[in-house]
Design brief:
- By secondary structure, the chain is mostly helical.
- The chain has a domain of about 80 residues.
- It contains 4 helices and no strands.
- α1 packs antiparallel against α2.
- The longest helix has about 40 residues.
Length: about 110
Amino acid sequence: MFEEDSINLLKSMGANKWQIFKIVKLPYSVQGLISGIKISISYSFVGAVIAEWLGGNKGLGVYMIRAKRAYNFDEMFAIIIIIIIISLILLGIVSIIERKLLSWKYLKEEV
């Protein structure tokens, strides 16, 4: 609803299609893009580990299988913690990029 009001306001001020796209539609679409990247970044890393687990000869997935077969459960849990940490680091990087691109969203209202 807010986007529609912003577009109507810009049209009433005489803005052309490119200006409406640049001022309203692009910032709102970046929000959705960043949300999709946040979801996909963790899934892609876990998917890579599972692919190594199923058919690789190097990587964390293979090391996890070897640790499981040797009954080294402490090593397996360490690998799981490493996977979680790497996923959180990647998510943090995307969050930093989001704060840079969508700085208008995080501005605090001054009283």
